Amino acid sequence: MKATLYTIIALIAFAANSLLCRMALAEGYIDPWNFTIIRLLGGAVCLAIIMSVHTRKLKHKHTVNSNNTNTAAIAILEDPILQDKGSWFSSISLVVYALCFSLAYVELDTGTGALILFAAVQFTMIGWGIYQKEQLSTVQWAALFIAFTGFVYLMLPSAAVPSLFGAVIMAMSGIAWGIYSIRGKACVSPLRATGFNFIRSLVALPLLLLIGMSYLADVSTEGVILAGVSGAITSAVGYSLWYVAMPLLKSTQAAVVQFCVPVLAAILGVVFLSEQLTLRFIIASVVILGAVSVFVLNKKKPKLSIQIKTSE
User: Among 29, 55, 93, 237, whose Cα sits 20 to 30 Å from the Cα of 195?
Assistant: First the structure.
């Protein structure tokens, strides 16, 4: 139940994030460079504040439960939660994902971008899962195929022949997100790992600012607000919850459940942007959600080895 709850909340956050990106970039409220800058900065500031409160509570807990100051200091130093500070590799993956996604979003149609992004994510995470000996049953392979077919059916009408640049950077974004997700399986403290990953990502800000400065004239108040919400809420909080769910899921499961994101994003578009609810969307949603449910609930049964004893 814990894995299901956190996964659903994280997927809703991803869908909301997609909606915010669409509103900000597709409407021209802000350029991809400054959107990424504000998104990363917003996520880092939000998580830094939450982490400071969380760290203070953990240290106070150790102080109360210890007999003396030295014992408390040792307990704080040895606390595995406080030792989790993410990694540079994860931070690099985060920056590559966020920047490439924003750049590709303005280069590609929505359907084309989604197809390339999710194909790259699936290839990365399912490929890694198979490499790690996560065996899939025949039913799971069939469910994966049906989910992907439903996803293509949903996105194909808005797809067009992509530009080479847009296709490449969107594929890079998908691979980077797959890597970032996989690395969440090893984190001890999802909050601190995500927080430090965002804080480390700020190292890239000078380079992003160098390019983003030339687009400042095109940045509107709406764009700043949308980018800030995307960073501080749907990215920071959503990615933290995703890191809570990742250790509880197999890489293949975490990959497949993300097929639900376009469905959830479309639902949010209907609710908040008064977008049209089509028959195609209803059919595709039923197919995708049904196939994902079958995939997650089905488990490959271990082969039974039968030993025949012979009497001498």
Answer: 29
Under 8 Å CB-to-CB from 153, ≥6 apart: which residues?
280, 283, 284, 287
Give the number of other Cβ atoms within 10 Å of residue 278's Cβ: 13
Q: Tell me the pTM.
A: 0.90
Owner of token pair 């994030």? 17
Distance CA 228, CA 39 (A): 6
